[in-house]
Amino acid sequence: MESTTLHVANLLAGTLSQDGEVRRSATDALDGLSLNADFSFALISIAVGGENHGQSIAAATYLKNLTRRNTIDSRVSKEFRDALVRALLQAEPAVLKVLIEAFRPIVDAEFVKHNTWHELVPELRAVIQDSDLVNKSGNSRWKAINGLTVLQSVIRPFQYFLNPKVAKEPVPPQLELIAQEILVPLISVFHQRVEDLCIQNIVETDAEKSLLLTSKCIYYAVRSHMPSALVPLLPSLCRDLIRILHSLRFQDYGSFDDGYMLRLKTGKRSLLIFCALITRHRKFSDKLMPDIINSVVKLVNLKTDFSKLDTLAERVVSLAFDVISRLLETGPGWRLVSPHFSSLLESAIFPALVMNEKDITEWEEDSDEYIRKNLPSELEEISGWREDLFTPRKSALNLLGVIAISKGPPVVSSVTSKRKKGEKNKHKGRSSMGELLVLPFLSKFPIPSDVNTPVTKTTNDYYGVLMAYGSLLDFLREQKPAYTTLLIRSGVLPLYKASCHPYLVASANWILGELVSCIPEEMSFEIYSSLLKALAMQDMEDISCYPVRVSAAGAIAQLVENDFFPPEWLPILQVVVGRIRDNGEETPVMFELLKTLVEAGGDAVAPHIPHIIALLAQDILKHIPSSPEPWPQVVERGFAALSVMAQCWEESLPEEGVNDDVVVSGRATISKAFMDLLQEAWLRPSQVEGEEAELPPSCIDDSSTLLTFIISDVNESNALQKQKVSELLLVWSDLISNWHSWEEEEDSPIFNCIKEAASLHKRVSLINFTIIPSLHPLPVRKHSIVEGICSFVSDAFLQYPSAIYRASSSVHILVHLPTYSTEEERIMHEVTTALCQSAFSCFRQKQSKPSPLWKPLLLVISSCYIRYPDIVENALEKDQNGGFRVWASALFSISSSKFEHGPSTESEIKLTVMTLAKLMSRLLMRNQSSALLWECFGALIEASVRLKEVQEEEEDEDVDEIEDENTSDDESEDIDDEDSDDDVHEETEEEFLERCAQAAIDLENGTGVEEVAEEDEEQEIELGELEEVDPLSVVQSLVEKNQQILLQGPQQLLSSFVDAFPEAAIFFGR
Description:
globular; about 65% helix; single chain; mainly alpha
């Protein structure tokens, strides 16, 4: 063991060497030794007693990584567990911080999941009792900090519910044991320490660390569960936490030492405990609310300079506001908080909203951070239960919103009861706090008017007023529209007319976006005129107006997304395009706004799109790098905007006017702009002399949309255009063949482009599509367009369900492409083999249990089999011995009406029938009168019957649709009249938890349905030339030719076939 330890220590020293080769050699040697039984013990020994600090940290780090790798799959020995715990109790703070990470996965596996570490709690209790926290004799064996750190890691997993399959999870027995054996006595010690430190007003670093660790342990214990042993101690515990809060100060905050920083962290943890008690444990916390609210109100009312608070202090103040918000959402809490409304508004909430020095500094030095923190567009929901508010301003705004809509003590039954319809109307006729308190308070502050004066208290205060307006959304929704109109016209719009500070204009922009649901339509002209002024605002001599323009863009986006449209679209489009062409720092934001405007404007914007695209393409061209490197953000956002505009323009075209001169001209303008862009991006880098270029896969989804549009404009007569498109497709296919950033929204345009490219090849026979010339100047690997596409589609079968459906749809198109030479046929054989093997490999992964994905995967192979049966049979047998029979049997299964997710559309059933007919024909040719033949015949009969039924149903539906059109309007009116909100069932908490538990069970059992977009699942299969084939005629012809052999088969099958096709009875003498 000693020799192993010495060897490992030397290797660890090597990993710290400045010589890269020495480091690699030492690391490889350590990896080789890691399988040695003594290796982990050697690391522990070095971590605790290494020659130097660096070596100890290196040993702890290696042990941490080793434990994380191995604990998942294997159990650890008792000897190792004990040695690790001893090391944790002895380690120095820096080593302990790393070593505890090695301990956590072991605790999760051995103590939490399997509950096999029975001696852990008694031993840990003994350690804490004999630590310097409890044993004051001076002879304590253990450091309290180490013992509490271990305890924290043991309790930490229990802060969450551990079994999602149980609707109401009981307290885990391990947590009950910890609470009873360790936390109960520890809370008594905690109480004594709080008295010593807080009452005597002293700060000791070690004692503060003990308080912090203990409070973390308590928080983890009660965050989700409530151990029964802790219930009697809650009143005394809350009093101790309140004492900690009373000891906090924010004045002269920067002068405090590390000990007081720990006190602040303990205060933060105390507030988190209060949040957990109010949210999760109302049964036990209602009686504690008076003391909690008094302490928290006292804390937020402290005189505070918000500009000097660091992140920790901000989080403490933010949490204090959140505790009040949560209390206010409860019946008892409202009665306790309401007497403090005035003092809270004047002394706590409003001071947190006013502008301070930190805001101005952030505006100047980090405008994006300023926008994120101070113009919080995510503040859509005012609620006492939000957990994502991390700054005093956001939490104060949330609290102000809760106060504004309150009308009195809410009538609240248990949290498990169903919310009643009409509850919002119970207090109708009673004035809310927004009307009685908030708005009268805010109206006291005048609007500053002169931008040339320095920032004054008036400006700072009105900034707070604007922030407050933004939190009143829920309150204003309850008022008449005229109320909001008056508020905006008197308190917001004057800022745009006067020469005001940009800080206020940016906030005014934000308010107009936040209050969109309350603004009446008749204010549209005023609102958009004001926002356009802000959008065009130029920088001042010493103040950047970037946040003004960005917030104006955000507000306009919110307005149009909520169907609050401008009176005219052209002026706003002109300003946005102008800002983009100015190439300012907000250009990426303006591209996003342009996308939103085009999507929302639809037909009203469409006539302007070709001209806008032509202008923007010229500007984007200037930013595309001349060498192959990732594109700058402005190019990526530009491509995204162009992609959206192209789609919106096409969607706006009237079906009967596709050949209209305006449409033709617009299409040509857009196509040329896109062609210039893609040539610059993809072909120009290959022309740089002396460089081997590999293009970056930047914006491949949006580029695919642009390329799809170009393809749609190609015609047979334009040879030059065909050549350019062929070159672009070749580069594009190379990019997608090596693309691995799979996301559902991004891959859809690529699949669309695959379909358009295949369709174009069928129309005009593209060069490079199947065979690539031996010499070409393009920056691509040596493969053709279809081979690049094949690589992408093959990889898609390894991804999520939607990608599998889209890949399957693409294969049906590719496999039926025409070939014009022996070489092209050879390449298509290789492509078919690759696609078949990928689809079959994916099927084998899902073969153990019937799945909706069986159908697309099996039908992909079916399409290939119809075109190249020998190739497919060889490919399946190569992939798995007996693979062809596995595929055939699975195809028989999905053909059965008993299979839930079998072929359903006419094209799917048609393909199935033709595949089964092909398979049966080949089996008959081989004289294979086997079980496989009769299984195939049975499946063919059932599929043929289903196809016949579907075709008859479609004929009937055509008649029904005409009748339905005449009656649907009257019926819908009757239904609308009969509908009532009272009939809508609202899910209770119990039902929600039961549903989640069932979903977890289904997920574990693999019975949950994989989510797939409806348009992907229900795509009609493109069968190429097979569309003209009548499958039922093929079947009857097959039966007629082989009637003698079929007569030897099961008579039941023959009877079934004759019943379905009486005209075939003559073949069997019936």
